[in-house]
Each structure stands twice: as C-alpha cells, then as structure tokens.
Amino acid sequence: MIVFLIVACILIKGGSEPLYQGRTLSGWLEDLDEGKAGEVRKRANAVLIEAAGKAAPHFVETLRAKDSRLKLLAIGLAQKQNIINLRFQTARMRREQGIADFSRFRVGAIPVLTNLLEDPSLAVEAARTLSGIGSEATFHLIQALDHTNDQVKIAAALGLDCIYANGVRFQKLVARPGWQGMFPTNAVVAALVKLLNVKTPEVSASAAFALGEMREQPRIVIPALTECLEMTTNSRVLQAVADALGKFAHDAVTAVPSLQFVIYDTDPAVRNVAARALEKIEGRKPSDWNTKGK
C-alpha cells in the first residue's frame, strides 16, 4: 500500500504559469483591450501568438495523454485509504485544465487551434478550446460548423452560443457606449439555421438549442425551426426545437399550429416540452392541453 501511495505522489504533479518576455499572461491580455493604442495591441498579439506556439507541444501532449494502468491502480488503492489525503489529477482532468489554460492565450492560440482542427484525433478538443477564447474565435467556429466530424459541429454550435452569452448578451444588458463587438450575428444565425437540416439528430438539436438561447432574428429563425419541427420525427430534435420556439415567446405565435400537433407525439418528453413551449407563447398552462395523446 505504501509503495503505491508513493507512486501516486510521483505521478501527480502540478505546474505554474511562466512569464512571457518578462510579463505575466494577464498583463499581455490587458494590452489587447480596445482602449489600448494600436501599437500596444499589435505587440501583445504578436507576443501571444509566439507564446501559444511555444506552449502548443505541451498542450497537444496533454490532449493526447492517457492514464497508465499503474497510475489508475495507484489512484484506486489510494482512494481506499484515509491515512493520507491525496488529490489526484486524471488524464481527463488535466485535459480539461489544459483546454482552459490554452484558451487564455486568446488570439494567440487561434493559429494553433485552426491547425489542430485538421487532426481527426484532436479536432473536437480544438473546437472546444476555440469556444473559450471569446469573440475573436467566432469566424473560425462558424467554419467549424461545416466540419466533417459531427462532434466538432456540436462543439462549434455550443461554443458560438457560449460566446454570445458571455459577450453579446451581456453587452445588451449593460450598455457600453462605443462598443462594436466582434460577433457577426447574421452569419452565425445563417450557419446554425443550415445545421437544422442535417441528418445527424445531435447536430440539429445543438443548432436548435443555440438558436433558442440567442433568440436573434426571429423572422428568419422561427420559420426555420417550425419547418424542422414539421419535418423531423426524432424525439431529441423535436424537444430541442420545441424548447427553442418557446424561448421566443409570443414572437413564435406562427409556430403554434405545429406545436399543437406535436403535443400528441408518442413520446411523453416531447409532449411535455411542446406543452411548455405553448404556455410560453400563448400563456396557456400545460394542464390546458391534452398531452396524453389522441
């Protein structure tokens, strides 16, 4: 037991963030602010690209890492004892931390991540990391919606919604004079609407979820969601689309006839989501609808 605990301690180690040309990462990131002079921002951008390039090999190694059987055995044995309190980091935990850390390079990380999108084994993680960068990665996530890997498409759709939620929606709630932003809403909505018609249910559902969360361009999105609702029989897609329509509230009144049909679906989960959507749109309680089927 003691031997395995020692092995566990050796296998588990942490690191610290290095300096980049004598400054912390936070310091360089502050130089990217819109209020900074153009030369200052340009310099910060160059430093971040260089720093991300140097950090890329370790980042890729972290993404590819897997726990050895010896480490898993050591973790299992250590967790059965209460003599020494040990904190373990599995390969999955390190991978998640690595994604969070690398995304902090922001624009500097984009060249590395766009290259990793071409690697079938790392493309999903690359898309997830892009999602954490912020609005600078929006264009690349839009492109990722056309990726051959469906999981990359899902990660990109959810990433665009995350960027919208953390940036655009916040800016609408908290006015900031002169703020222009870098989120091309029209292009994002058009790309997500296109995904509603793909054959993979998980992809369509992710697109519907993102569109419902954004609630942008109802004149375009609501007809597209309604058509998807009428054309699909997949329970997951039906739930995602009905829920998205409900989030548009009264703006989605034209979708009511289609939702009324869906409340008779054979899947009780679909019926319940459709009933809640109708309540949000028309103000009628779910109990007003017969959701038990014809």
Task: Please give a structural write-up.
The relative contact order is 0.06. The protein has 294 residues and is mainly alpha-helical. Helix 7 runs parallel beside helix 9 and helix 8 packs antiparallel against helix 9. It is globular. The chain is built from 15 helices and no strands. It has 2 domains: 116 residues, no CATH class; 111 residues, Leucine-rich Repeat Variant.
Descriptors:
about 290 residues, mainly alpha, 2 domains, about 0% strand, globular, disordered N terminus
N-to-C series of helices and strands? HHHHHHHHHHHHHHH
Helical content band: 55-70%
Biggest sheet features = none
Beta-strand level of the residues, as a percent range?
under 5%
Mean pLDDT: 85
* Radius of gyration from CA coordinates: 23 Å
Find the structural class using helix and strand composition.
Answer: mainly alpha
Low-pLDDT ranges: 1-15
What count of structural domains?
2
Strand element count: 0
> What general outline do the C-alpha atoms trace?
globular
Our count of helices gives 15
State the end-to-end CA separation: 63 Å
